[in-house]
């Protein structure tokens, strides 16, 4: 099972050091796949048992792209794992940029966590599958280092996860399009994790709020069995 923490715009260099220390000390021998996406200013160069990823990057090595983060910057921290298409970034990024990021990451051989998900209106109109198919259009779904996180927007940060039967239906659908591991994300917490991980084709979770405090993330991982 994959457990990924998206820390979003939370944690500083100092607080992430403590986060990392606690994770290493508590779960150092854990045999699950753990990924953590801190803000870029908090990237760590310390050895860890889990994989550190970036929440964002620009598809360049370096160059005249004010405010952006290129491959050169990720290399300094040994980062080869990227989050692409999170709904909180899709507000600023169109499909052209998302595809450019995907293709660039693939060219580098990076692990890609691709987030997709519909809003409540799309769901209510019964258009979820068409919408998700469109989000996946033109992306190489056979890329061997691809992980797809299904994150319905209405469940992100709301404290209410999607219904398990809805998640199951969508993961079944996604499985017909790709053999990439499929994650669920959206208000995953220590109370609902067990049932979510039992859903057919669910290969793990992408967690925001319930991973902000390291002790909560640890409890969630430990309590997932
Ligand atoms: P949440 O965030 O767990 O707070 O809903 C998930 C995410 O945005 O990936």
List the topology elements.
Layout: E1 2-6, H1 13-27, E2 33-37, E3 51-52, H2 71-75, E4 81-84, H3 87-90, H4 95-108, E5 111-116, H5 120-124, H6 128-136, E6 146-150, H7 164-177, E7 182-185, H8 193-197, E8 204-207, H9 214-222
Parallel strand pairs: 1-2, 1-8, 2-3, 4-5, 5-6, 6-7, 7-8
The structure holds 2-phosphoglycolic acid.
Q: What tags apply to this protein structure?
A:
TIM Barrel; 36% helix; 9 helices; single chain; binds 2-phosphoglycolic acid; alpha/beta; 16% strand; eight-stranded parallel β-sheet; globular; 8 strands; 225 residues
Compact description:
With 225 residues, this protein is an alpha/beta fold. Helix content is 36%, strand content 16%. 2-phosphoglycolic acid binds next to strand 8.
Give a written overview of the molecule.
This protein is α/β, with parallel strands linked by helices and 225 residues long. It has one domain: TIM Barrel, CATH 3.20.20.70. It contains 9 helices and 8 strands. Helix 7 links the parallel strand 6 and strand 7 (182-185). The protein starts with a strand and ends with a helix. Bound molecules: 2-phosphoglycolic acid (PGA). 2-phosphoglycolic acid binds at residues 6, 151, 156-157, 185-188, 206-210.
Which hetero compounds are present in the coordinates? Answer: 2-phosphoglycolic acid
Strand order of the largest sheet: 3-2-1-8-7-6-5-4
Name of the CATH class: Alpha Beta
Task: Determine the structural class based on helices, strands and strand pairing.
Answer: alpha/beta
Low-confidence stretches: none
CATH topology: TIM Barrel
Distance N to C terminus: 10 Å
Radius of gyration using CA atoms only: 17 Å
């Amino acid at each position: 099972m994959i457990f990924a923490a998206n820390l979003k715009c939370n944690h500083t260099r100092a607080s992430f050091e403590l986060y990392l220390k606690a994770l290493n000390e508590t779960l150092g021998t854990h045999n699950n796949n753990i990924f953590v996406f801190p803000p870029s200013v908090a990237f760590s160069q310390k050895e860890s048992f889990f994989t550190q990823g970036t929440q964002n990057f620009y598809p360049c090595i370096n160059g005249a792209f004010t405010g952006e983060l290129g491959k050169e910057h990720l290399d300094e921290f040994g980062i080869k794992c990227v989050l692409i298409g999170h709904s909180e970034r899709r507000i600023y990024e169109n499909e052209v940029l998302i595809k450019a990021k995907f293709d660039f990451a693939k060219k580098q051989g990076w692990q890609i966590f691709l987030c997709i998900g519909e809003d409540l209106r799309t769901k209510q109109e019964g258009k979820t599958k068409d919408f998700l198919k469109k989000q996946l259009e033109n992306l190489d779904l056979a890329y061997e280092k691809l992980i797809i996180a299904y994150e319905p927007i209405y469940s992100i940060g709301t404290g209410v996860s999607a219904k398990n039967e809805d998640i199951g239906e969508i993961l079944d659908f996604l499985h017909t399009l790709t053999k990439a591991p499929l994650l669920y994300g959206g208000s995953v917490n220590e109370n609902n994790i067990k049932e979510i991980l039992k859903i057919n084709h669910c290969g793990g979770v992408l967690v925001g709020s319930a991973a902000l405090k390291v002790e909560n993330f640890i409890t969630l991982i430990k309590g997932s069995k």
